[in-house]
Amino acid sequence: MGARKHNRAEAIKEARKHVAMAKLNDVPTSPRKMRLVADMVRGMKVELALHALMYSPKAAAKPMYKLLRSAIANWEAKNEGKRIEDANLYVKEVFVDEGRTLKRIQPAPQGRAHRIRKRSNHITIVVDSRIAEANVEAKVEE
Q: Helix or strand or coil: residue 114?
C-alpha cells in the first residue's frame, strides 16, 4: 500500500475511534414509518433528539429512543472519562434498511385470498462529537 493510502487509512481509523454506533435488527414497523422518525432526529444534538423522541406520538419513536440511548452508552464506553455535555454529541447518521417481510394471507370474498405483507426494518444510528470531527478533518488535510 502506498504512503498516501496508508496515511488516509490511518486517519479514517483514528476518526472511527471517536464515533459510536448502535444497530437494531428486525424492528416490526414498516421502514417507511420508521424513516419519518429517523428524518426527525438526523443531525440533531443528542439531548434534543432524546427529548424529541420521548415526546413524539409515533409508535416508531420508542425503539429509536432506546437505540439512541444504546449508541450514547457505546460512545461513553469508547471515551472513558469524558462527559457527554462537554463532547457536544450529535446524531451523525441514521439510516433505516428494509428487513425481512412476513407474508400472510387474509381471506377475501368469493373464495379468494389477499396477501398481507408484515414489514420489518433494520435501524443504524451513528453518534459523533463535533469537537473530535473538527480535529480529524484538520489531520486529514495535512
A: strand
